[in-house]
Amino acid sequence: MLYHLTTYGCQMNAHEAEILAGVLEDAGWTPAPGPDEADLVVLLTCGVRDTAEQRALGKMGELKRWKLARPGRLLAVGGCVPQQPGAVERLSAAFPHVDVVFGPPNLHRLPALLETALATGQPVLEILDDSGAIPDDLPVRREGKVRAWVTIIHGCNHGCAYCIVPAVRGRERSRQPRTILDELSGLAGDGFREAVLLGQNVNNYGRDLPAEGRRVDFGDLLAQADQVEGLARIRFTTSHPANFRRRFLEVMAGARRVCEHLHLPAQSGSDRVLRAMGRGYDRAQYLELLKQVREVLPGAGVTTDLIVGFPGETEEDFEDTLCLVEAARFDGAFTFLYSERRGTRAAAMPDQVPPAVRGERLARLNRLQNQISLELSQSLVGSTQEVLVEGPSDRNPARWAGRTRTNKLVTFPAGAARPGDLIEVRITLARTWTLEGEAGGKRS
Ligand code: SAH
Ligand code: SF4
Ligand code: F3S
């Protein structure tokens, strides 16, 4: 029996798709080249913004014809959308052709749920409490061979006014340090070169662990991960500015494998908006953290997330965001139009910003950030960077691609490089989001 898996959303979902693939293959399913050949299609949905949710819902609707085209086909829908309060009822009413609805905490149960659906001929809807944790010992079928994702903490204890994630992913649950370190060693043994530690807020790692594990915080975990032989690089995402401690920077500075890149979502540059969002820091505190980053880790890459058009955002608030972007000089930013999410505090706030105003602000913000990204990229022309080789570039397979320690994408003629090599690349050309270079010597 053949399955096809489509994933939306963040790296957390993408990694859970790898676990789900492992679980399905363990249960006897094999990957199909595409949905047409598949007996089972699984969608792992994302609900962080309306656009993401609509994409998944649109696909669910489209797949009705796919399902009816051949008797016995199965359609399963998981990920974050079904986990929203009241969503299962809405989904099963709107999409009666869906056979199984499940969520992140019970993704390993999909084979059993499919069997029940087949045996009864009825839809199976199993949504567990969001506080469950995916078991540690599941098989994983990883997408790449160079970089591997490792979840270190599930859930999020912040309650940012606009965000659906705490409602669908529950409270913070850290995995045991030993389990994580064993997984890292196993990855090194399997030939992986880079591990990316994942969590909605990795900086709170360990805070919820029982007494004997509590001494391990994020800094300790990073320091221990840095000792794992065989890995060349360690990254992590996402950091919450309110929970980032100077000590983490010191650990990074003293580490060999931990890369000098931080993703520090600012969301806004206006104190009024930051307060309304409930982010737990103001503009000055954010800039102070950046100053520390640049003192302790000179040359580190810093990227961010910004939301435009949060309810009540005035032109002046928006200009504060532009001004933060100028002061911070981020290497890159993911910029989002505010999207109203059912059940969040922000959805009930007055003064929703008209869509045309949101759009115009987003365009201005992107223009400014793109110019800064380009300037920072250009400043690297002529320098030599350590690049971890990934393989042929998606855009132009004639060239190969890899990343600098600061997480910038570099393409270069493949030459003798092999995926997983650490090589020196001399940067010859800068674009806004990518660099081009010439491959030099091999480091390891
Ligand atoms: N836990 C991470 C990321 C959460 S989701 C963090 O706190 O940084 C990724 C990004 O999506 C957020 O940083 C935010 O910029 C954006 N986002 C979340 N909810 C949103 C909404 N309702 N509308 C627009 N953007 C949103
Ligand atoms: Fe959402 Fe805020 Fe938690 Fe990030 S920190 S996942 S934006 S609630
Ligand atoms: Fe989306 Fe869920 Fe990630 S809502 S951003 S897939 S945690």
Content-based structural category = alpha/beta
CATH superfamily of the largest domain: tm_1862 like domain
Largest sheet: 6 strands, parallel
Query: How do the strands line up in the largest sheet?
Result: 2-1-3-4-5-6
Helix content: 25-40%
* Topology-level CATH name of the largest domain: pyruvate-formate lyase- activating enzyme
- The count of DSSP E runs of length 2 or more, i.e. the number of strands, is 19
What's the shape?
A: globular
Total helical elements: 12
Name the average pLDDT. Answer: 95
- CATH class group of the largest domain: Alpha Beta
The tally of structural domains comes to 3
Rounded to the nearest angstrom, the radius of gyration is 22 Å
* Beta-strand fraction estimate: 15-25%
**Which residues form runs of ≥5 with pLDDT under 50?**
none
Distance between the termini: 42 Å
Provide the list of bound ligands, each named once.
S-adenosyl-L-homocysteine, iron/sulfur cluster, FE3-S4 cluster
Comma- or semicolon-separated keywords:
444 residues, alpha/beta, Rossmann fold, pyruvate-formate lyase- activating enzyme, OB fold (Dihydrolipoamide Acetyltransferase, E2P), five-stranded mixed barrel, 19 strands, binds iron/sulfur cluster, binds FE3-S4 cluster
